[in-house]
C-alpha cells in the first residue's frame, strides 16, 4: 500500500511541475554580436555574472519562447512545431534546457 501512495505522490508532483510556468530572468539579455547570439548577464545577482554564453539555434528558440511565462510542456509543443526530430528527444532536450537554465538562474519560476 505504501508503494502505491509513494508512486501516486511522485506522479502528482511531476504533473504539478509539468504545469509550472517559467520565464527568462530579466537579469540576462540575448543579443546578436558579429552574427552570433550571446546571452549576457546584466545583473549582479546572476549565477554567472562574469561570463557570456553562446547559445545554439534551438537554445535561442527556447529563450524566445520563455520571454513570456510558459510551461515546459508548452515549450515542447512549440519546438515540435518548429523543428524536426523524435518527440522523446525533443522532450529530453527541452527538459535539460529548463533544468540547466534554472540552475544558472537564466530561467525563473513564475506564478
Write the layout of secondary structure elements.
Layout: H1 2-18, E1 21-24, E2 28-33, E3 36-41, H2 57-65, E4 70-71, H3 72-82, H4 87-103, E5 107-110
Antiparallel strand pairs: 1-4, 1-5, 2-3
Please give a handful of descriptors for the protein shown.
globular, two-stranded antiparallel sheet, 4 helices, 111 residues, 3-stranded antiparallel β-sheet, alpha+beta, 5 strands
Question: Which segments are poorly predicted (pLDDT under 50) over 5 or more consecutive residues?
Answer: 1-16
Termini separation (Å)? 34 Å
Report the radius of gyration as a whole number of Å: 16 Å
Topology order in helix (H) and strand (E) letters: HEEEHEHHE
- Report helical residue fraction: 40-55%
**Strand arrangement, largest sheet?**
4-1-5
**Distinct helical segment count:** 4
* Largest sheet composition: 3 strands, antiparallel
Mean pLDDT: 84
**Counted beta strands:** 5
The shape, in one word, is globular
Protein structure class:
alpha+beta
Give the amount of beta strand, in percent: 15-25%
Give a quick precis of the structure.
The protein is an alpha+beta fold. It has helices at 2-18, 57-65, 72-82, 87-103, and strands at residues 21-24, 28-33, 36-41, 70-71, 107-110. 49% of the residues lie in helices and 20% in strands.
Word description of this protein:
The protein has about 110 residues and is α+β, with helices and mostly antiparallel strands. About 50% of the residues lie in helices and about 20% in strands. The chain has helices at about 1-20, 55-65, 70-80, 85-105; strands at about 20-25, 30-35, 35-40, 70, 105-110. Strands 4-1-5 form a 3-stranded antiparallel β-sheet. A hairpin with a 2-residue loop joins strand 2 and strand 3 (about 35-40). The longest helix has 17 residues, at about 1-20. It is globular and about 35 Å long.
